[in-house]
From TrEMBL:
<dbReference type="Pfam" id="PF00583">
    <property type="entry name" value="Acetyltransf_1"/>
</dbReference>
<dbReference type="InterPro" id="IPR016181">
    <property type="entry name" value="Acyl_CoA_acyltransferase"/>
</dbReference>
<protein>
    <submittedName>
        <fullName>GNAT family N-acetyltransferase</fullName>
        <ecNumber>2.3.-.-</ecNumber>
    </submittedName>
</protein>
<dbReference type="InterPro" id="IPR000182">
    <property type="entry name" value="GNAT_dom"/>
</dbReference>
<dbReference type="GO" id="GO:0016746">
    <property type="term" value="F:acyltransferase activity"/>
</dbReference>
<feature type="domain" description="N-acetyltransferase">
    <location>
        <begin position="16"/>
        <end position="182"/>
    </location>
</feature>
<keyword id="KW-0012">Acyltransferase</keyword>
<keyword id="KW-0808">Transferase</keyword>
Length: 182
């Protein structure tokens, strides 16, 4: 579904545009994903695992923009993609159609400016508007900034998944499962 453009003022006074990505943003989205993945181990993929083509990304963008409930909101500062969030149904079956999975990432140069808070605010408003009743996420147990942000928005921990991520060096991350009722 398409999210209408919204301007937000960041902590440093800069203006940020929140909007649904368009197919013309496909290359920017791939580059952003590679950059975000290179800046933290909290992302699901390593940079070299991001192998989608521009055509693959264009199809993904079209699919999500044409969805009845799923949405993606991207954050742009001076036309540079600095953050992205998405909300997707857990499943189309009646028994789980009230649940949504949430994901977000912001590139390092935009950390601590309020981009994540702006994206989370808007994606939760959107989720409620389209009828989701529950938003779920997974977060590394030592990603304290993200956990604090989620808790500030009313997410609660409801479980732990040990050894959820195995890093290249052989170490593991444990994840918290978090949920917010809308």
């Amino acid at each position: 579904m398409i999210f209408e453009d919204k301007k937000v003022k960041l902590k440093n006074g800069e203006e940020c545009i929140l909007r649904s990505p368009d197919v013309k943003d496909a290359e920017k989205l791939i580059d952003y994903l590679r950059k975000a993945s290179s800046e933290t181990d909290y992302m699901l993929r390593y940079t070299e695992e991001i192998t989608m083509t521009i055509e693959d990304e264009e199809k993904f963008i079209n699919d999500i923009n044409e969805s009845n409930k799923d949405a993606m909101i991207s954050a742009f500062i001076d036309d540079k993609l600095v953050g992205n969030s998405s909300i997707c149904t857990i499943g189309n079956m009646i028994k789980v159609s009230h649940r949504a999975n949430f994901g977000i990432a912001v590139i390092k140069e935009a950390w601590n400016l309020g981009v994540g808070k702006a994206l989370l605010t808007e994606i939760l408003k959107y989720a409620k508007k389209v009828g989701f009743e529950q938003v779920e996420l997974e977060v590394a147990s030592d990603n304290y900034k993200a956990i604090n942000l989620y808790e500030e928005f009313g997410f609660k921990k409801y479980g732990t998944r040990s050894n959820s991520f195995k890093l290249k060096d052989g170490s593991y991350y444990t994840e918290y499962l978090m949920m917010k009722n809308l």
